[in-house]
Amino acid sequence: MKSLVLYTDPSAMTPLMPEVENKALNELAITLMKKSASLSNALNPTTKEALVKLIEPMNSYYSNLIEGHNTNPFDIEKALKKDYSKEPDKKLLQLESIAHVRVQELMKAELKKEHLNICNPEFIKWLHKEFYKKMPKKFHYAKTRAGKRIEITPGELRKGEVEVGQHIAPAAASLDKFLTMFSSAYNPLKMNDSAKRILAVAASHHRLAWIHPFQDGNGRVVRLFSEAFFIKEGIDGGGLWSISRGFAFHNKNYFAALHNADQMRMNDYDGHGNLTNRGLIAFCEFFLKTAIDQVEFMTSLLEIDGALERINSYVNIMVVRKELKPEARYILEEAFLKGKIIRGEAARLSGKSENTARKIVKELVNKGLLISKSDDVKTPLYINFPVKIAPYLFPKLYPKDIEITLAD
């Protein structure tokens, strides 16, 4: 087996940010901030909360899909209710997806801490630790370059050397030095310029992947890290969009952009660091454009007129199937716009008798579109978005073949 020439000096990771101010990148960063802020305010807060619950498992689906693990979103939803498949392989994928969802929840709570530098190695190791603690034991193993099977210790930096495609990651013995430099360079607490912080989200995504700090699970940890960075900077649209969806839809371009930014500096016109400045700029451009594309996609889905039209279309389909009454549309529209309905208002909204209105409400509850947060019958019913409804109300959240299985 050939010997590797390993990086031991963190200067090998330079440039850490695109050298020389780039107007196009700054404009992309500002555009992302503006569009994300607009998306965050697109819905009633209660409706947004319900939609975020649909989006979180979607993040898990796409991040795992990038790694080649395809879990049906309906199976993820069932696993969240502890309803696991009797097929061992399918159950393993369910548990893997749940691990991602649970780490997202823990991460959001952790990010509420003040003065938290998310680029700190301890936070990055924490993400890996929490993810693998929740992963099935079967996924706690990886193979070394020599083909030896080794166990993954949650949160522990790798002890062996790795090659990822044509990229040779830094020496394991030097990882602490690389991560210390990473933490200092991208610490958002030290950046006063908001556009620069957004650019740092993009640049740090590549550089953390380049360091490859763990024996396994690096891709998912890097995407979780970027999601944390977005949340910390307040550009996650309140949880309404997913960068992983964009990477999954443009998978080949994502890996190509990562690969191109791995390359050595080409010539004297390619920056002053060890790695290509042009490649880093191109990766940051791809990253920011992908993020903007996802924000615009979700914004288009949440335009009120279009959303109400899809609600009507959905009810029409269910009426044909004799699963809902036509008047259900008025109750569902009210719940979507206001986030909830008062039970006693169902008759007025539907224009039907109290008895018929109760039946309509029961049908919507049975479909999971309305839920109660209390056993008290006097409490409101809240809007909810089961994953099987996604193809009707929020088309293209998932790939076409998956939507067909959900809507079946």
- Biggest β-sheet: count, sense, barrel? 3 strands, antiparallel
Element pattern in H and E: HHHHHEEEEHHHHHHHHEHHEEHH
What coarse outline follows from CA principal-axis ratios? elongated
Q: Using only CA atoms, what is the Rg?
A: 23 Å
Portion of residues in helices? Answer: 55-70%
As residue ranges, the low-confidence spans are none
Description of the structure:
With 408 residues, this protein is mainly alpha-helical. The chain folds into 2 domains: 287 residues, Orthogonal Bundle (Fic-like fold), CATH 1.10.3290.10; 104 residues, Winged helix-like DNA-binding domain superfamily/Winged helix DNA-binding domain (Arc Repressor Mutant, subunit A, Orthogonal Bundle), CATH 1.10.10. Helix content is 56%, strand content 4%. It has 17 helices and 7 strands. The strands form 3 sheets. The chain has a 3-stranded antiparallel sheet, sandwiched between helices. A two-stranded antiparallel ribbon has the order 1-2. A two-stranded antiparallel sheet has the order 3-4. Helix 1 crosses helix 7, helix 2 packs across helix 4 and helix 10 runs antiparallel to helix 11. The longest helix is centred in the C-terminal third of the chain and has 25 residues. The model has no long low-confidence stretch (mean pLDDT 93).
List the helices and strands and how they pair.
Layout: H1 23-40, H2 45-66, H3 73-80, H4 88-110, H5 121-133, E1 141-143, E2 149-151, E3 163-164, E4 167-168, H6 175-186, H7 194-211, H8 218-232, H9 243-249, H10 251-261, H11 277-301, H12 304-320, H13 328-338, E5 340-341, H14 346-350, H15 354-366, E6 370-372, E7 381-383, H16 390-393, H17 400-407
Antiparallel strand pairs: 1-2, 3-4, 5-7, 6-7
Helix pairs in contact: 1-7, 1-11, 2-4, 2-9, 3-4, 4-5, 4-8, 5-8, 6-7, 7-8, 7-11, 9-11, 10-11, 12-13
